[in-house]
Design goal:
The chain has four helices and 29 strands. The chain is mainly beta. It is globular and about 65 Å long.
């Protein structure tokens, strides 16, 4: 799928997920509050309660999100629908950032208004979320963000002027040799897909890359003037080819990881970038802007695929794709959340392509039945069908 054929399929995929028939309201405490106020003639105006962090577990078994009121909601996705999934709720978690442990399905870390990071554990049977332990970087500075690396070896704690790493294999031991001092206030951070590099964006629009060498050495690799204003978000697409950064200057840049050169600049957004994400196939880039819009682009060419406006909300929009599907969760009116999903015939770009091919060349009714062994061989994918390297590979030079 290359060129115009890919864009046509991407547009069809997005059009189906953005239609009203393929949207499910996530019935959490916020949604119940909004519905009760809307149906009452004498209710006071609904106060904002935006989503500040939204993350899927890499296995897609869980999704969790925190709000500005300090609440934390965790769903165990036992079904495709949220109506048939298990919900757990913590009223006073005060989590401004959260990250899932890739090796432990039921554990995640948060940080908020204190100097500490909190490790949480989920008990599915009791539907309880409990604090497992508390980590302190050892500085009198609030931890702004926390992030597990994709391999599950490190937990990163980000303060405004420093990076702190905890070694999970050594019982979350804080390592002083991996504490990096930063010149400007940090605003965005992400790991590369192999957990060997950390990418950091600051409030002056600069990008910094730090490399971790084994368990005893680390170094500052490169610093780039990337944007004219603060970098608000950064993400590396699933195949490890590109780094995507969004900024308050209203631009979104796509960087080739192997050279750290900017290959595309999306400068028609006309509003500060709030959040962004890339789908599991590495084809569709979603960018949320402060004017309440979501822009969907082809990450390879930068071409606009679709635009969606979020009505009835003045908060910063947020979007997150499923780790294994093209589905996504998007903020909606009055800070509620909704799930956008595909029809039953397909759930991502590849399955849509297969469905379209079957329509063009359907198998004749009297044709010879293909043996099961041959069917399995046909489903095998050759290495040449994928981008250079394997998924989640390190593309840094």
């Amino acid at each position: 799928m290359i060129g115009e054929e890919s864009n046509v399929l991407c547009r069809k995929l997005l059009d189906s997920m953005l239609s009203k028939q393929q949207v499910e309201d996530i019935d959490d405490d916020r949604y119940a509050h909004v519905i009760s106020r809307v149906n009452s003639r004498f209710a006071a105006p609904i106060t904002p309660n935006e989503v500040v962090s939204l993350e899927f577990h890499p296995s897609a078994h869980y999704v969790a999100y925190s709000r500005s009121d300090g609440s934390l909601t965790i769903w165990k996705l036992s079904s495709s629908s949220f109506a048939r999934s298990k919900k757990m709720f913590v009223a006073d978690a005060m989590a401004n950032s959260l990250s899932w442990d890739p090796k432990e399905t039921s554990q995640f870390a948060t940080c908020g208004t204190s100097y500490d990071l909190v490790i949480w554990n989920i008990d599915d049977k009791k539907r309880e979320v409990t604090k497992l332990r508390t980590l302190t970087p050892g500085t009198k500075t609030r931890v702004e963000k926390c992030l597990y690396d994709p391999t599950g070896r490190w937990l990163l704690g980000l303060t405004r002027r420093a990076l702190h790493l905890f070694d999970i294999e050594k019982d979350y031991e804080s390592l002083s040799q991996f504490t990096f001092e930063i010149e400007d206030d940090a605003t965005a951070v992400c790991w590369n897909n192999s957990g060997s590099h950390i990418v950091l964006g600051d409030d002056c629009g600069k990008l910094s890359v730090f490399q971790i060498e084994g368990s005893s050495n680390a170094k500052h690799v490169i610093k780039i003037n990337a944007h004219r204003s603060a970098i608000t978000s950064c993400s590396i697409e699933p195949w490890g080819r590109f780094l995507v950064t969004g900024s308050d200057d209203g631009t979104c840049a796509i960087w080739e990881l192997s050279s750290m050169c900017c290959v595309l600049l999306l400068d028609e957004l006309l509003s500060p970038v709030c959040s962004l994400d890339v789908d599991s196939t590495g084809k569709i880039l979603a960018v949320c802007t402060a004017d309440g819009k979501v822009h969907f682009h082809n990450i390879n060419s930068g071409e606009m695929l679709a635009t969606h406006s979020i009505k009835g909300s003045s908060s910063r929009p947020v979007i997150k794709f499923y780790p294994d599907k093209a589905w996504f969760i998007l903020s909606s009116k009055q800070d509620s959340l909704e799930r956008h999903f595909t029809p039953n015939q397909y759930d991502d770009l590849v399955s849509l392509w297969r469905a379209e091919n079957e329509k063009v060349a359907p198998r004749k009714a009297n044709s010879k039945k293909i043996p099961k062994k041959e069917q399995k061989d046909r489903l095998k994918v050759a290495k040449s069908d994928f981008p250079r390297g394997s998924r989640y590979n390190d593309r840094f030079s």
